[in-house]
Amino acid sequence: MLQGINLACVRGDRRLFKAVNFTLEAGGLMQVHGPNGSGKTSLLRMLCGLSNPALGEITWRGFSIRDLKNEYFSNLTYIGHLSGTKDDLTVLENLRISSALAGERISETQARDALAYMGLNGREFLPAKVLSQGQRRRVALARLLVCKTKLWILDEPLAALDITAVKLIQELLERHLAEKGLVVMTTHQAIDVAAISAVHLRLV
Q: pTM score > 0.85 for this model?
């Protein structure tokens, strides 16, 4: 269970949000909505432990993530709004290296299967710099197919994706949730994802 308790975020002399509360159980999806500048990415960074709330507490299974540290982070996969692909690495290298940096060492076969699922079959050995933005996004999201974490935190995962890719991500999210995973995501695009429970958190 992931919980946010009375969370507040301040950037410089500006308060982005305050008194944010939520509870997300196994199998639950939380979609974070709000206009640009409302603090959506800031909230996700807090949930990843990359920044601290000005006020409040984030807990995992009843314990503060600040106390749990790696016990929490080992359950977490974060994919930011930038694809993070390295231009001079091949598609295959990008997936294997990014997975290794996140603590998941995967074989070439696992990587190729994930990339094929994401519609990148035949592009495994191309340098990332020749890919479109949508294809780069698919490479980044392929990590979800090879990770074993319970909590996925995704910042604008549908950005630059076409209808076919959005459908693939929808299916992937639904499968993860059906297996009692948890998902927190921001998106400006409409997506209907079946979940055991759904939370819509709006920041203003």
A: yes
CB atoms under 10 Å from CB of 48, counted, come to: 20
Domain that holds residue 68: 1-75+151-204
Q: Which residues of the chain have pLDDT under 70?
A: none
- Residue among 204, 199, 203 nearest 3 (CA): 199
Same domain membership, residue 142 and residue 101: yes
In the chain, how many domains are there?
2
pLDDT of residue 83: 82
Helix axes 91-101, 108-117, angle to 10 degrees: 110
Same domain, 64 and 159: yes
Choose among 14, 2, 37: nearest CA to 153.
2
At residue 190, the pLDDT reads 77
Q: What is the CATH number of the domain that holds 155?
A: 3.40.50.300
> According to the model, what pLDDT value does residue 73 have?
95
- List C-alpha distances in Å: 118 to 49, 182, 184, 194: 29, 21, 21, 20
Residue type, 139: V
